[in-house]
Amino acid sequence: MHTRLLALLSDALGPAQAANELRWMNRALDSRLSLNDMVARRVRGEPLQYILGTPSLQILLSLPAHYTSGTQPFGPLNLLVRPPVLIPRPETEHWVLRLADSFLPTATVPVSLLDLGTGSGCIPLLLCHLWPPGTVNAHGVDISPHALRLAQDNAELCGIPSRLGLTKNPQNTFTTSSANFLAKDFKDAALSAYPRFDIITSNPPYIPWKEFLELPPSVIDFEDPRALFGGPSGLEFYHAISRLISHKDILNPGAIVALEVGHDQASAVQALMHDTGCFLRTEIWLDPWGKQRTVIARM
Predict the structure, then answer these.
(1) How far is residue 240's CA from residue 236's CA, in Å, rounded to a whole number?
(2) Which Gene Ontology molecular function entries are recorded, alphabetically (predicted)?
């Protein structure tokens, strides 16, 4: 049987990748998963992370059946993933780890972080995990209820509370709220209860229409288009972030903005940040494959 399944996977993925994935599927087998079903789902293009469910985590978090989750490593974390929320990518992990190394907050003056389009919560949760306890209070915003539920589940899994507990031990915190940051009244409607921010991060939708139509089935058929499509040019969300930053009362002095961008968008997004008149300097970080991946703006 394994020979037949390997042949099916090889036709879809190539021999080397098929052998690896079949081995991982075998390791994930339990009473609710059959190898035949997993291979059939993978051949149809479903991402492997969604297929390799984690029943023990589902029981731990008291999740209903339709919330069955897989996992995806992200730095030292192992985050829950489930459709239709965007699966964290290695290029995002790379710049978040670099950001964590390049800026070290202290418990004496903890920082406030805003993550726009938080999805699984991967960016703020990794920073909360890496930075010392009591140094960051993070807030994630997303329009998708599926994303917000997943981000909250991941926060619980990672042991990051939504507010300071009764313990005297210092803690980092992570909260979420539902909002559309493309809306012109986003700041007043969604952020009125929050102070100025020291850090804004975002991996917004940035795929332009032409590239969106060319995405593989494993992406376009299973991950939320709202987390992928960035408008006709791919820059719609960066214009919204630029408008938000242009409010002079949104950032604290010395703030940092870190934005993931598409493969050919870094210069345009860097110009948008420069045109806000808020930053002393900007820079572009490369991803592990040499592509311009992240725009960093510093006040």
Answers:
(1) 7
(2) protein methyltransferase activity
Both 16 and 94 in a single domain?
A: no
Question: Which position has the token pair 């703020």?
Answer: 124
How many folded domains does the chain comprise? 2
- Token pair belonging to 284: 């572009």
Q: What is the pLDDT of residues 87-135, one digit of tens each?
A: 899 999 999 999 999 988 998 989 999 999 999 999 999 999 999 999 9
Mark whether 7 and 146 lie in a shared domain.
Answer: no
Domain assignment of residue 51, yes or no: no
Residue type at 220 in one-letter notation: I
At 155-202, the pLDDT tens digits run 999 999 987 665 677 899 999 999 998 988 888 878 877 879 999 999
Instruction: Look at residue 31 in the predicted model and tell me its pLDDT.
Output: 58
**Is there a domain that residue 267 lies in?**
yes
Q: Are residues 17 and 125 in the same domain?
A: no
Domain CATH code at residue 227: 3.40.50.150
Instruction: Say whether both 11 and 131 belong to one domain.
Output: no
Q: Is the dihedral of CA 170, 176, 182, 185 positive or negative?
A: negative
Q: Is residue 124 part of a domain?
A: yes
Place 16 in a pLDDT band, splitting at 50, 70 and 90: confident
**Which residues constitute the domain of residue 3?**
1-44
